[in-house]
C-alpha cells in the first residue's frame, strides 16, 4: 500500500501486524472537519476480538524485537525521525483537517513530537545499567533494564501526533511491542505514523493500532497480555483507567486534565506578560493541557494587564486552520464549542465580568465549530469557569492582593499540571518554584512543556501513577530492572553454608 492511499481510505482502519486491518465489528464513528462542521470520513470502532488480534500480533513479535540489537533499534528510530521530517507537512495537514489547529501550530506539534523520537535514538546509552565490581570477594553485582512485553497507549484528540510519540518512541526503543488506541476524533495521524514506522524498518507486529471507543479501551485494560497502560486525556477518564488497570495488575501512568494558573507580580514586564498570557490561553483555541486558563493578577497590575491582554485579543485572527492568516482555529466539536460558550454566559450570571470578547474572522463562517476568544474578569473560586477545566479560548482573571493569596489559590486547586510566574525578581521566582505544588513550572515561560530529555507530568488530579511521561521517567516506565549477583569462583573453593549471604 502506498503512503497516499491511507488518505483516501473510506473508513480509517486498524493497523495490525504491519498492515491495515479492515474492521468487521460493524461499528463506526464520524470524523469531522472542525473548520467546516462536515463529516469527512468514518473511523472503525474495534470489537474486543479485534483488540485481541492486535495484542496477539504484538505478543508474537515481542521475542524477536526484544532480541534486536540496540544499535539496530536506534537505527530504526533514526530513520523514523527522518521520515517524519520528510512528511512533516503531510502530518500537519492531517492534524489541521481532523483537529482544526492552525498550520503553524500543527507544524509546531510535529516538531515537538520529533524531539521524542530523537531522544529515543539514544537508546543504547539510555539503557545502560550499573555495575559494581567486587561487591564481595570475587562477587560482582550489576543491574540491567529489560522491556515489559506488550504495552498499550490511549491518547486524546488535542495532540494526534505528539502524544502517541510521547509514548511510542521510548516504548519501542526499549524493546516493547505497542498497541495504540488513538482518539476516535483524530484517527488518521496515527495510521500515517504506523506506515512511516514500517518504512523505517520496524518489524511487523511491533506497533499496532486499534481504532475505537470505550469497548477497545476496556479490553486493553483487562487483557492479560498487556503489561502496562499509558493514558493521556481528561481527569475522570484518567482516574477510571488508573483504577481499572492497576486492579488488573498493570503498570499505569494516566495523565489527566489541568487548570493552569499564571501569576503576574506587579514588577513583571507588562508587555511580555500580556503576550505570554494571550499566546498560552488562546493558542490551539485553548485546547492544550498546558494552556494558561487563569491569570492571577497581583495588586495594581490587574488594570493595565487586562487592557494589554484586551488589545492583543482584538488582533487574533480566528478562522480555518488551513488559512495562512489564521492564528486560532475552531474547537474540536460542536458540543464542545457550545459547552465552552456556555461557560462564558454562566460566568456573567455568577458575578464575573466578560471583559472582552474577540470576533470571528471572515473565513470562520458556516457550520465550523468556531468560537471567539473571551476574557473574563473578577473571577472567583466557586464559579464554574474557575472550578472546571474549560479547555477552550476563555481566559479568567482572578484579582489577588498578595503573592501569598495567589500561591494559596494555586496550591488549593485540584489540578497541578502546569503553572507560570511572571516577574523581574529572581528571589520571588525562586520562592515560587519552592512553594508551588505543580509538576511543571515556568519562570517567565508560559507553556513550560519540558524538553524530551526531561519528563512530562503534573501532580494531584493531573496525573495518576508514579512516573511521568517520556524522557528518563519514560524509559523507567517501559522497562523493569533486574539485578544480577555473579561469581566465577575457583571450583575448589566451594562449600555448603546455610547462613544468610553477607559480605566477607
Ligand atoms: P478524553 O478523556 O475524552 O479521551 C481520551 C481518550 O480516552 C480517547 O482515546 C477516548 O477514546 C478515550 N475515552 C474517552 N472516554 C472514555 C471512557 N469513558 N472509557 C474509556 N476510554 C475513554 O480526553 P479528550 O477529550 O480526547 O482530550 C482532552 C483532555 O485531555 C483534556 O482534559 C486535557 O486536559 C487532557 N490532556 C491532558 C494532557 C496531559 O498531558 N496531562 C495532554 C493532553 C490532553
Give an overview of the whole structure.
The model is unreliable at 1-6 (pLDDT under 50). The chain folds into 2 domains: 3-256 and 462-483, Aldehyde Dehydrogenase, Chain A, domain 1 (3-Layer(aba) Sandwich); 260-443, Aldehyde Dehydrogenase, Chain A, domain 2, CATH 3.40.309.10. Helix 1 crosses helix 8 (214-222), helix 2 packs antiparallel against helix 4 (103-120) and helix 3 (88-99) crosses helix 4. The radius of gyration is 25 Å and the shape is globular. It is an alpha/beta fold and 504 residues long. Strand 8 (150-154), helix 6 (162-173) and strand 9 (177-181) form a beta-alpha-beta unit. Helix content is 38%, strand content 23%. The strands form 6 sheets. Strands 15-16-17-14-13-19-20 form a 7-stranded mixed sheet, sandwiched between helices. The protein has a 6-stranded mixed sheet with strand order 10-9-8-11-12-22, with helices on both faces. It has a 3-stranded mixed sheet with strand order 1-5-4, with helices on one face. The protein starts with 10 loop residues before the first strand and ends in a 17-residue tail after the last strand. Bound molecules: nicotinamide-adenine-dinucleotide.
Keywords:
504 residues, alpha/beta, Aldehyde Dehydrogenase, Chain A, domain 1, Aldehyde Dehydrogenase, Chain A, domain 2, 7-stranded mixed sheet, 6-stranded mixed sheet, 38% helix, 23% strand, globular, disordered N terminus, binds nicotinamide-adenine-dinucleotide
Spell out the blueprint of helices and strands.
Elements: E1 11-12, E2 14-16, E3 19-21, E4 28-33, E5 38-44, H1 48-67, H2 70-86, H3 88-99, H4 103-120, H5 123-126, E6 130-136, E7 139-147, E8 150-154, H6 162-173, E9 177-181, H7 188-199, E10 207-209, H8 214-222, E11 226-232, H9 235-247, E12 251-255, E13 260-264, H10 270-282, E14 292-298, H11 302-313, H12 334-349, E15 353-357, E16 374-377, H13 384-387, E17 394-400, H14 403-412, E18 415-416, E19 418-422, H15 426-435, E20 440-443, E21 459-460, E22 463-464, H16 471-477, E23 479-487
Parallel strand pairs: 1-5, 8-9, 8-11, 9-10, 11-12, 13-14, 13-19, 14-17, 16-17, 19-20
Antiparallel strand pairs: 2-3, 4-5, 6-7, 7-23, 12-22, 15-16, 18-21
Helix pairs in contact: 1-8, 2-4, 2-7, 3-4, 4-6, 10-11
Nicotinamide-adenine-dinucleotide binds at residues 154-159, 181, 183-184, 213-214, 217, 232-234, 237, 240, 255-258, 289, 389, 391, 417, 458, 462.
Amino acid at each position: 500500500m502506498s503512503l497516499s492511499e491511507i488518505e483516501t481510505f473510506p473508513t480509517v482502519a486498524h493497523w495490525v501486524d504491519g498492515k491495515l486491518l479492515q474492521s468487521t465489528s460493524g461499528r463506526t464513528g464520524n470524523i469531522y472537519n472542525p473548520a467546516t462542521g462536515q463529516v469527512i470520513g468514518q473511523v472503525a470502532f474495534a470489537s474486543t476480538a479485534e483488540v485481541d488480534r492486535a495484542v496477539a500480533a504484538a505478543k508474537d513479535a515481542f521475542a524477536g524485537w526484544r532480541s534486536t540489537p540496540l544499535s539496530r533499534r536506534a537505527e530504526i528510530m533514526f530513520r523514523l525521525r527522518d521520515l517524519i521530517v520528510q512528511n512533516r507537512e503531510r502530518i500537519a495537514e492531517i492534524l489541521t483537517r481532523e483537529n482544526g489547529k492552525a498550520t503553524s501550530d500543527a507544524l509546531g506539534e510535529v516538531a515537538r513530537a520529533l524531539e521524542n523520537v530523537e531522544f529515543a535514538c539514544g537508546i543504547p546509552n539510555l539503557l545502560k545499567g550499573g555495575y559494581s565490581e567486587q561487591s564481595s570477594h570475587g562477587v560482582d553485582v550489576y543491574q540491567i533494564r529489560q522491556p515489559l512485553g506488550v504495552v498499550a497507549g490511549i491518547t486524546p484528540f488535542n495532540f494526534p501526533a505528539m502524544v502517541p510519540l510521547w509514548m511510542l518512541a521510548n516504548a519501542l526503543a526499549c524493546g516493547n511491542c505497542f498497541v495504540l488506541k488513538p482518539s476516535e476524533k483524530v484517527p488518521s495521524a496515527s495510521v500515517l505514523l504506523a506506515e512511516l514506522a514500517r518504512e523505517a524498518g520496524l518489524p511487523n507486529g511491533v506497533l499496532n493500532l486499534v481504532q475505537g471507543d470505550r469497548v477497545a479501551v476496556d479490553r486493553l485494560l483487562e487483557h492479560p497480555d498487556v503489561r502496562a497502560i499509558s493514558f493521556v486525556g481528561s481527569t475522570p477518564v484518567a482516574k477510571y483507567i488508573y483504577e481499572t488497570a492497576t486492579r488488573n495488575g498493570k503498570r499505569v501512568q494516566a495523565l489527566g486534565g489541568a487548570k493552569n494558573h499564571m501569576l503576574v507580580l506587579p514588577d513583571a514586564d507588562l508587555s511580555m506578560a500580556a503576550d505570554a498570557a494571550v499566546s498560552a490561553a488562546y493558542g490551539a483555541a485553548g485546547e492544550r493541557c498546558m494552556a494558561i486558563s487563569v491569570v492571577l493578577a497581583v495588586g495594581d497590575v490587574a488594570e493595565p494587564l487586562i487592557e494589554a491582554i484586551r488589545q492583543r485579543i482584538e488582533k487574533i485572527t480566528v478562522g480555518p486552520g488551513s488559512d495562512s492568516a489564521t492564528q486560532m482555529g475552531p474547537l474540536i466539536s460542536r458540543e464542545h464549542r457550545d459547552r465552552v460558550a456556555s461557560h462564558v454566559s454562566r460566568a456573567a450570571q455568577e458575578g464575573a465580568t466578560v471583559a472582552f470578547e474577540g470576533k470571528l474572522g471572515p473565513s470562520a463562517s458556516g457550520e465550523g465549530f468556531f468560537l471567539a476568544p473571551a476574557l473574563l474578569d473578577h473571577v472567583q473560586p466557586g464559579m464554574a469557569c474557575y472550578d472546571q477545566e474549560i479547555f477552550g479560548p476563555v481566559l479568567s482573571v482572578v484579582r489577588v492582593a498578595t503573592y501569598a493569596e495567589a500561591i494559596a489559590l494555586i496550591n488549593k486547586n485540584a489540578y497541578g499540571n502546569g503553572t507560570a510566574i511572571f516577574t523581574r525578581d529572581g528571589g520571588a521566582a525562586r520562592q515560587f518554584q519552592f512553594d508551588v505544588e505543580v509538576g511543571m513550572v515556568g519562570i517567565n515561560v508560559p507553556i513550560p512543556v519540558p524538553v524530551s530529555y526531561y519528563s512530562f507530568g503534573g501532580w494531584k488530579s493531573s496525573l495518576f501513577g508514579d512516573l511521568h511521561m517520556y524522557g528518563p521517567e519514560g524509559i523507567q516506565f517501559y522497562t523493569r530492572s533486574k539485578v544480577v549477583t555473579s561469581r566465577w569462583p575457583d571450583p575448589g573453593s566451594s562449600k555448603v553454608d546455610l547462613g544468610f549471604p553477607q559480605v566477607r
